[in-house]
Design goal:
The protein is built from five helices and twelve strands. The protein has about 220 residues and is an alpha+beta fold. The protein has one domain. The strands form four sheets. Strands 4-7-8-9-12 form a five-stranded mixed β-sheet, sandwiched between helices. The chain has a three-stranded antiparallel β-sheet with strand order 1-2-3. Strands 5-6 form a two-stranded antiparallel ribbon. α3 packs parallel to α5. The radius of gyration is 18 Å and the shape is globular.
Length: about 220
Amino acid sequence: MKGHLWISADIPLDAHRYFLHEGKWYEIGTAHLESIHKHVTQMLSQAPSIPLPLWDLAFTREDAYNDEVARRGQFLLLDKKVLRTTQHPHGVEACDLLGPNGEFIHVKAPTGSGELSHLFRQALTSYDALRYDPEAREELAKLVKATQPGMSIPARPTVIFAIALKSKKKGQPATYRPLTVDTLFTFSQVSLIHTVRVFDLVQVKVEVIDISPQP
């Protein structure tokens, strides 16, 4: 993605807010934004259904976190293991980690809203492939069986977004912030709620877990 597409902006003006996201401007009304904030706050206040370790300050990439979690034994590493089918010849990644109860866990340490939008789209694409593409289901079942034979995949697995909210300035070490309605990018909150609504239609539960390091 070109550099200018990573730039985001959030500008309040009277009863509206304007967002620059991936090179395009969007507008949202104040009342709708308040509804979004309320929904996101409820999601973030829910207790996680499974324990996930916090992000280590030494990690610079998501794959380091995924490797560490997988080494604990209860989670299956699926990061970068793509499922290639007739419908998806270039492959689709089911998730980063498969949880102990078959949860699809998608991990991100974003510095901007574009990265989270990509994460949410990835989760939707993954679920769509596994729901409607028999080849994808067969490929995933083979992958799980070869790696962890006793693990099963529910028909409607819980989708978990594990997020470590990161700030990074050139030449300086990364810093992290707790994930709250005040720190999560507004456009990402809108994208998240749209994603949740799609999953609601197929009765799939969505969780957001804050894995940011403690200050």
